[in-house]
Each structure stands twice: as structure tokens, then as C-alpha cells.
């Protein structure tokens, strides 16, 4: 009821803000309820109407893709700033423990029995690898064979199960310890 | 057309033989085509009619459960005979590379975001753990913390992706190498 014009929360700036809020809300809702959570729960968490959600994301898959894209972007940002591998691995590990869905993108060469990964997934996986590899010191445990780095990431993602975030983070830490790889604070980029 | 009596391939002995053939066929078909493969393909591979398949397994889930059960049984048999952990891990690794479905049972405490593991899965996972733990020497790399053994198994299962069995086996071997754990020949029990 703010008059006959466009509602207060529109315009390009509001649109970008809504999109960011929707992605953050989707990550939280997925983390708590899995990828099958209703889109209405995401809109509600973001504090926008469902119409706004559908304006940004035509369907369920588009929301999930946006979250994965944003996860990868945060790892790239951490890699652009942090100077050591441990710091970047900490951000990667945070995303692993936050979202089971994210894990699937680290199995990008998968095409494994029965797994039907969407087409954009290998590209995201390569971006994660590039972000990490830029910080991999010569002589590092994971630098011996070309595949070792991403095999190790797949291994940690395989360990990250459990009912709560704390449980999953503990298992991720144990996995890095078993690999003999140091990992920095487990936190979101900028968090 | 062997007369008016029961067909040649019936009777309790034939039933047991058919069941064994169906489980072996299902494992192969799942390995090649994933869990969504049609039941008709499994019956065909086993050389029995679909009616025979349905007499043993009321539905799709029953077939998958029987394969998982049989996988675990083979690991238990290897553990009962082999005297070292490496030998049992070789059989475990064979099942990992053979069947992506098997991997999910090793994430039994999962209940992770979005994963809905059937109720029998934790029991199977505990049987795998028991079979391995009986061969874990004191002072072994994976004996330091109570969870380390099955975290390591989860880690290897996380690395086992790829389009072919050979590809998946290479990645599994790399994963055990990164963990510093020796693994015996990757082969089925008795194979």
C-alpha cells in the first residue's frame, strides 16, 4: 500500500539484494532440510514473496545451481586473498560441511554408476581445483601425482556425513588429519 | 515342453541357484547401468524369466538390498579367512569400485542433509566395521581414534568416482596410498 507505483523493494539494487538474500537463505534451508526443501521455505527465510523468488529463479534447479556457483565463488575469493592452502581449505571445508549438495560437484568426473550430474558441474569442479592448485606448494603431500589434490578433496567430502554441522565438521577435520594435511579455520569466506 | 510336471528349473535347489544368479546379475547390471536399470535386464542377464525374479524379489528395493547384503557377507567371509587387514580391504575396495550403491551403506550414520538411507543400512555398516576391526592391529594408523577406521572407509568411497571400473579402482588405490594404508589385491571374495 505504498501507492500506485512500484513496490518499495524493487529496482535493480533491490533485485540484487533480493537475489543475494535468496541464495543465502537457500543455502541455510538446504543445509537443514536437504535439496527437497520447498521453495516457499526459501522465500520465507529470505523475507521475500514467492513471486520474487520465481522472478530470479525459474525453477528448483536454478536455485541449487546458484548456491553451488556462489560456494565456488567464495572459494575463489578466499584463494585470491589468503596466501596459504590451509586457509582456502578451511573455506572449502566449511562449504562441504554446510551442504551435502556441494559435495556432488567435487565428484565431477563422476559419471559414476547411476549418478547423473548436471552438465555445469565439471566446470565448477575445475574452478575449485584451480583455486586450490594455485596455493599448492611444491613438495606438498598432495602434489605428488596430478590427481591427488582432487582425490583428497573427494575423500574429505566422502567423510563428511552426519546429522549435524558440528558432527560433519568433526569428521572433516579427522579426514584432513588422516591425510596429514593442515587445514585452517573452518569458516565461510569473510566469516 | 518337458511334460506336464513342474518345469526343469524349479525345486528348492534350483530356487537357491536362481537367487544366487539373480544377485550376481543384479550386481553386474547395477555396476554398468546404475540402480535405475530395468529389472528385465537383470532377469535376462541371470538367464531366468521375469516371473522367477519377482518370485524372489517383490520389488526393485528388494533386489538392491539383496546385493548389498551379499556384498557385506563376502567381506565378512574374507575377514573370517584372511588374516590381515590388507586382504579384507582388497575385497571391500572391490565392492566399492563395483557398485556406487554399496558406497551409500558406508555412510550409514549419514542422516546427512537430504540423504534418506533405508533403515537396514546402519546395521550393514556396523557389520562391515566389525569385519575390519577384527583385523586392525594395535598401533595401526587407523586405530588412533575410534572413528578413524570407518572415516577412512568413507574417505576412500568418496574418491571412488569415474566412468569405468578401472578408473574407479585407480582412484581407490590412490586414496589408500594417500592414507598410508596398505591394501591387498582388489578382487571379489574367492575371485
UniProtKB/TrEMBL annotation, chains A, B:
InterPro entries (alphabetical): Homeodomain-like_sf, HTH-type_TetR-like_transc_reg, HTH_TetR
Keyword Transcription regulation assigned: yes
Keywords per UniProt: DNA-binding, Transcription, Transcription regulation
The protein, known as: Helix-turn-helix domain-containing protein
Domain HTH tetR-type: 16-75
One Pfam family hit: TetR_N
PANTHER family in UniProt: HTH-TYPE TRANSCRIPTIONAL REGULATOR BETI (PTHR30055:SF234), HTH-TYPE TRANSCRIPTIONAL REGULATOR RUTR (PTHR30055)
DNA-binding region(s) in UniProt: 38-57
Amino acid at each position: 500500500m505504498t501507492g500506485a507505483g512500484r513496490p518499495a523493494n524493487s529496482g535493480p539494487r533491490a533485485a540484487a539484494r533480493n537475489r543475494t538474500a535468496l541464495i543465502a537463505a537457500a543455502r541455510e534451508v538446504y543445509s537443514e532440510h536437504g535439496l527437497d526443501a520447498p521453495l516457499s521455505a526459501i522465500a520465507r527465510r529470505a523475507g521475500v514473496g514467492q513471486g520474487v523468488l520465481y522472478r530470479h529463479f525459474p525453477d528448483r534447479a536454478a536455485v541449487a545451481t546458484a548456491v553451488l556457483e556462489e560456494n565456488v565463488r567464495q572459494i575463489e575469493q578466499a584463494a585470491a586473498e589468503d596466501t596459504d592452502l590451509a586457509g582456502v581449505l578451511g573455506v572449502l571445508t566449511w562449504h562441504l560441511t554446510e551442504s551435502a549438495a556441494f559435495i556432488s560437484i567435487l565428484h565431477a568426473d563422476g559419471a559414476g554408476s547411476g549418478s547423473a550430474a548436471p552438465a555445469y558441474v565439471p566446470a565448477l569442479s575445475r574452478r575449485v581445483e584451480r583455486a586450490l592448485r594455485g596455493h599448492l606448494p611444491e613438495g606438498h603431500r598432495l602434489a605428488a601425482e596430478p590427481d591427488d589434490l582432487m582425490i583428497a578433496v573427494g575423500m574429505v567430502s566422502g567423510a563428511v556425513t552426519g546429522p549435524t554441522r558440528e558432527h560433519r565438521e568433526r569428521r572433516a577435520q579427522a579426514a584432513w588429519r588422516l591425510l596429514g594435511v593442515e587445514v585452517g579455520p573452518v569458516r565461510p569466506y569473510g566469516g
